[in-house]
Amino acid sequence: MQITSLHRYPVKSMAGVGEAYLDIDAGGPAGDRRWAVVEAETGDKVTARELPGLLHLVAHTTEHGVGLRTVHGRTLAVPFPYDGRLVTVGFSRLSHALDAGDEAAELLSSELGRPLRLVWQASVTDRSIRLDLGGREGEALSLADAGPLLLTSESSLARLQEWLDTETRVGMSRFRPNVVVDGGEPFAEDTWDRVRLGDVDFRMQHACDRCVMTTIDPVTLDRGREPIRTLARHRSWDGAVWFGVWLVPLAPGRIHVGDDVGVEAGHALSTDAGPD
Predict the structure, then answer these.
(1) Per-residue pLDDT for 83 more than 50?
(2) In the chain, where does DSSP find H-type helix?
């Protein structure tokens, strides 16, 4: 089993970029979901669930901050706002973040048609993983919904596609993973305990419950009922539907596309060299 693709989403709910490698720190992939869009007046978080147009804004990390690109060709380099205004934000277990300035706010507001601001989480240690979602004391979290790193499997997506109507296609981009792996049995990731991606070790935190954001086509922004409807038939328990798993890094390191994936089996770490 190997890593087939890696993805980083610097700004929560915006389109991310594929990467050849990801550096892993305490909060997961470095630079992943450390920025977010909030309501200008209240600081409440804004995601593609209620504002799908965010998916058409592309964000990429830069040496000095984040770069933004709109569907209209506008670009903006936003520096890390080290001296930015500390503002109240509506994230669980994070009460404040640094405002990224008026240029970013103007771009977001004009593109998305409402008063918005861009904020930055200065340190992942300012936010923790929920204990009821598999977190442990002292574990850090970015502005991601639940965990530091989201992993999905091509074989699981293939099984989901078998369950779907033959005319309905759902790509992996609907699920916004950081790491995609090949091989293995469909949904085998549910049972993993420890995982090694390349030379970096992770522990299984929790399966990922999926929301209505997966029903938005990231290209057309059309809303539908899939894949939630089909997942509800086959992958429903505890009042939610599930696809992918959250992993917590046990040490820093770097992972690459093509790295082997090792899964703990009993007391040994076994590595499947290729797809089943």
Answers:
(1) yes
(2) 102-112, 154-163, 228-234
